[in-house]
Amino acid sequence: MEPKYLTRALAVAPQITAADLPALRAQGFRAIIVNRPDGEGADQPGHAEIEAAARAEGMELRYVPVTGGVIGDADVAAFDAALRELPGPVLAYCRSGMRSATMWALSQAEQHPLPHILQAAKGAGYDLSGVARRIANGGHVPTAGADVSHDIVIVGAGAAGISVAASLLSRRPGLDIAIIDPAEAHYYQPGWTLVGAGVFQPQETARTTASLIPKGVTWIKAAVAGFDPDANAVILEGCRVIGYRRLVVCPGLKLDWDRIEGLSETLGLNGVTSNYRYDLAPYTWQLVQAMRGGRAVFTQPPMPIKCAGAPQKAMYLSGDAWHRAGVLKDMDIQFMNAGGVLFGVKDYVPALMEYVRKYDATLNFHHNLTRIDGPARKAWFTVTEPDQPAREVQVDFDMIHVTPPETAPDFIRVSPLADAAGWVDVDPATLRHKTHQNIWSLGDVMNAPNAKTAAAARVQAPVVADNLVADIDGRAAVSQYDGYGSCPLTVERGKIVLAEFGYGGKLLPSFPRALLDGTKPSRRAWLLKERILPPVYWRGMLRGREWLAKPDPIAAE
């Protein structure tokens, strides 16, 4: 990580880690400005974790996140104030450095001529030509004129975004499609459960985003700041404007680590881990291997979360490892669930309860993690049992696997596309926006009542592709989504309870029961999870090959 100097007093950089702070202090930096909101990426440390490391180096930190919509005057003023008040030189960072460079440029608009600002940014490797209009026009960007337009714009290059792009091209080659996403890496997140169990290596779950963008699709490597659906425009960080005829919205969820007090600064330390972050899943396995006795706590926050079964998957695979090592009798396994049931579809609960008993795990329902003290190895939970006053309990731990609270990203929640709860408001069958008829959504951020899993996106992508192409042809929606989602519950190494269900908890098995009964632990289901689904993901789903994902037609009235 090489800081890029905009002035003698300010440099900008991409995302840093706590491990970078000693080197930055050695380079002379005395303060940090964080412009990236927490929880944007699965592999991102929160600002509290960075602040703790900065304090240890005698450095100051100011958290000035750009949380959604265009970069506002208040954001620029806060950045300018931080720059004036903090001891210099200062390092400002965001995901790529672009946001920080933009904040600086806007803060200098009244002090320096436009060519000077653009040249300084160019010298640091940042092209701010897309912000030139805002700098010249007092911070206001007219969305009436887009910088560039495409027939179809897709927000998000995760499982949903790349899959729907590939499915669209398989139906209508030559479509003018752009995908907006700033991330260099694309992750197969369902594999992180197995990384945390020592089955996969983390690098097996990652590819470069560039290698996965379908041929012929334009990749706009930037982050979205907001939407203007009345102008058919997407506003990017740096205030570039991308126009569209039709829009597909499918970014991932925000992992809100900082909602749990004390968590960010202890992640990856003191026995605190999570399979929900790429860099932490290996630590889960390290902890499991090292433990030969003591208390292991596994948490699950209120819904919605990505893959509702993932928190207990970590518990089962850890319990299995301790069982195989002959130390299970010395382990105290505690499952702390903010909800009131083990799993939301009752057909799968009997098989899961057999493993709860096998690992002698204690189920604690209505327990929501609210704060943690890593060095002291203590966690506090708010208990909200029905018809009882809320109370707080303290739990000591030797190891704790934390599932973070999860929400739609800020730029979704504050947008005109969102419902009152902050999710993109779609028809649950056609996945078309209820208000804006040229917008569709799939994946984690839309408000259909389905499980948020990669398997759900695999089935949703063809539905959106069918209906969007039908719209291009002037036809009504032709395909419908039945709420399908899949959660392979890894109950032990070598066996899985394969939960497949749709809206209302209706069972939707992919295979005949004689071949694979998903309600019972199965080696065939494990083979599916370990050997078959990863290549289906990389070589099928992301390339528009819709294996086991044929959309249901909308019945004619």
TrEMBL record:
One of its GO terms (molecular function) is FAD binding. GO terms for biological process: sulfide oxidation, using sulfide:quinone oxidoreductase. The keyword Ribosomal protein does not apply. InterPro entries: BLH_phosphatase-like (IPR005939), FAD/NAD-bd_sf (IPR036188), FAD/NAD-binding_dom (IPR023753), Prot-tyrosine_phosphatase-like (IPR029021), Rhodanese-like_dom (IPR001763), Sulphide_quinone_reductase (IPR015904). Keywords: FAD, Flavoprotein, Oxidoreductase, Quinone, Transit peptide. The keyword Endoplasmic reticulum does not apply. It comes from the Bacteria. Pfam families: BLH_phosphatase (PF04273), Pyr_redox_2 (PF07992). Its cofactor is FAD. Residues 89-130 form the Rhodanese domain. This is TIGR01244 family phosphatase. It comes from Paracoccus aestuarii.
